[in-house]
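> forwarded from #structure-qc
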């Protein structure tokens, strides 16, 4: 299915299908409404919904990563959520006494890649750097 909404094209054939899940059920536990989360090449998200009771289908844009994550938090389990958006990091800033602030100069190209990763995953840059260091064997705690 494809549709133009607010001047933007949403196409289930060209977008990346992330997950399909039941969002409403009948008295016997059968799906009566399903939603499929898609991501466009532009990074925008949208839902394709099918309602078997009213026999309707539709597309609803979720234009930001934040909106997509909010929908996923409501409708997916932790494993499904992490499969799409990556591992949920513990908030390392909760216990600031265990952290040490430093300043580091890094190449602009790496910084730009970190910003892109931050925008696509919603993970802050500090957490991305800490994960990379831990993955490289630093920090002891995995």
């Amino acid at each position: 299915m494809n549709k133009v909404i607010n001047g933007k094209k949403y196409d289930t054939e060209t977008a990346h299908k992330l997950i399909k899940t039941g969002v409403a059920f009948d008295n016997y536990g059968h799906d009566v409404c399903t939603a499929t989360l898609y991501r466009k090449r532009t990074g925008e998200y949208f839902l394709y919904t099918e309602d078997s009771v009213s026999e309707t289908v539709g597309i609803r844009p979720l234009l930001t990563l934040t909106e997509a994550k909010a929908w996923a938090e409501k409708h997916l389990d932790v494993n499904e959520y992490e499969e799409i958006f990556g591992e949920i990091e513990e908030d390392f800033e909760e216990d600031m006494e265990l952290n040490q602030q430093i300043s580091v100069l890094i190449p602009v190209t790496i910084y730009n890649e970190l910003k892109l990763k931050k925008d696509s995953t919603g993970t802050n840059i500090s957490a991305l750097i800490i994960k990379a260091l831990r993955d490289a064997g630093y920090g002891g705690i995995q």
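QC bot note: DSSP finds four helices and six strands in the chain. The two ends are 43 Å apart (CA to CA).
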